[in-house]
Design a protein that fits this description.
By secondary structure, the chain is an alpha+beta fold. It has one domain. Helix content is 30%, strand content 32%. Strands 1, 2, 3, 4, 5, 6, 7, 8, 9, 10, 11, 12 and 13 form a 13-stranded antiparallel beta sheet that branches. The radius of gyration is 19 Å and the shape is globular.
């Protein structure tokens, strides 16, 4: 099996962030490939067009956790519920504001609340609807991303890439090239374990392992997200990764340098 670049061992934070950025880009583009209702589709297209003027429409802050702010909110609370396909753990309302909190736990034989992390989605009332105005990320996830990696140059380039994204409604599968830089920064097995902790399950005598996550809510069969990572013959570097959540499934092949996203309804 071909070896991946190993001239430099990356820090675990940089490696996981590199993979995470590719997945986030694929998922965002995948939203545009869905056969959405005309109203939701129009709102998604509006958000896409807003990325063409990022500084006017958005801001990112890192005080006490990463926050993504929308200066001109578009997406509705009902849109988020449909796209996430899950009920929030907590919903609170105050005046003209609505807050949805999603708490996620790692699936283990003995769950540990210390491993839980959360997303907070803030909505403001506008034209008779609650519209998404701010997304707040748990400090644990913020630490994985790291503000030093989200330079203004990177943010500007990511926004422009999203602005330039093209899609067709004939299919539900998207393909992306994985850059040489992303491959060079892949984390080792020990670095992934240091960052994400013990896996939910080991496969093939530890040549692969699985992380399962579920939402904490009233659903008796809570939604599961799964990430599976396979390693090379040394057991050190990842060669393939698959993840699934709700309507989305991704596959990254680090040997062929390809990433795939599949969307189902």
């Amino acid at each position: 099996m071909p070896k991946l670049p190993t001239s430099k061992h990356p820090t675990r934070e940089i490696g996981v962030r590199s993979i995470g950025r590719s997945i986030r880009t694929a998922v965002i583009a995948g939203l545009l490939a869905l056969g959405l209702s005309s109203c939701l589709l129009n709102r998604v297209i509006t958000v896409k067009e807003q990325f063409c003027d990022f500084e006017t429409n958005f801001a990112v802050t890192f005080d006490g956790g990463t926050e993504f702010l929308m200066h001109n909110p578009v997406l509705l609370d009902s849109d988020i519920l449909w796209l996430s396909d899950a009920s929030p753990t907590i919903v609170s309302q105050s005046g003209d504001e609505l807050l949805m909190t999603y708490v996620i736990e790692k699936v283990m034989p003995v769950p540990d609340p210390e491993n839980d992390f959360s997303f907070k989605l803030h909505f403001v009332q506008s034209e008779g609807h609650y519209r998404l105005s701010r997304m707040q990320m748990d400090p644990k996830l913020s630490a994985m991303m790291g503000p030093e990696m989200l330079s203004q140059a990177y943010i500007d380039q990511a926004a422009q890439d999203f602005c330039d994204t093209r899609w067709g409604f004939g299919g539900r599968k998207l393909e992306y090239e994985i850059s040489d830089q992303a491959l060079a920064m892949l984390p080792s097995q020990s670095e992934i374990l240091d960052l994400l902790g013990e896996p939910s399950e080991y496969l093939d005598t530890e040549s692969a392992f699985i992380y399962d996550f579920r939402l904490k809510n009233d659903d008796p069969t809570p939604l599961l997200a799964r990430m599976t990572v396979w390693f090379d013959e040394t057991g050190d570097l990842p060669v393939k990764m698959e993840s699934s959540y709700s309507r989305f499934a991704t596959k990254a092949d680090f040997i062929d340098r390809k990433m795939y996203l599949k969307v189902t309804l």
